[in-house]
Fold:
Amino acid sequence: MFTTKTIINFFDCDPGGILFYANLFKKAHSAYEEMMNEFDLDRNYFFDDDYIIPIKNAHAEFIKPMYVGQDVTIHLSVSQLRKSAFELECKFIDDAGNIAAIVKTIHVLVDKNSFLKTDIPEELKNNLALHLL
Structure:
């Protein structure tokens, strides 16, 4: 499991001071980027000439509101690891230790030229496996 922290900023919120739903996905993706940047990889898959990793599916469950100024811990795990795809589960934990939201995203490795799915390279698969539930 990869862990990071974030704060709910004013610009993340709706007029009621509660985290706006679309910004939950932004925070989940930022955690994913942080995790990928900590991997010991020969290539940067966000700026790769051969591969792209689009999100095929995204789902969010809001359990408790998150408010402006609130510190939140994000626990990011790989919940599934397949031949050409992986699923991430992002749990947003409030300062009392309660789950406030869960985001799940499915990412597919795709050849950049043909746009056909392709096998996840071994080095990426091995790093993702370190965070497998």
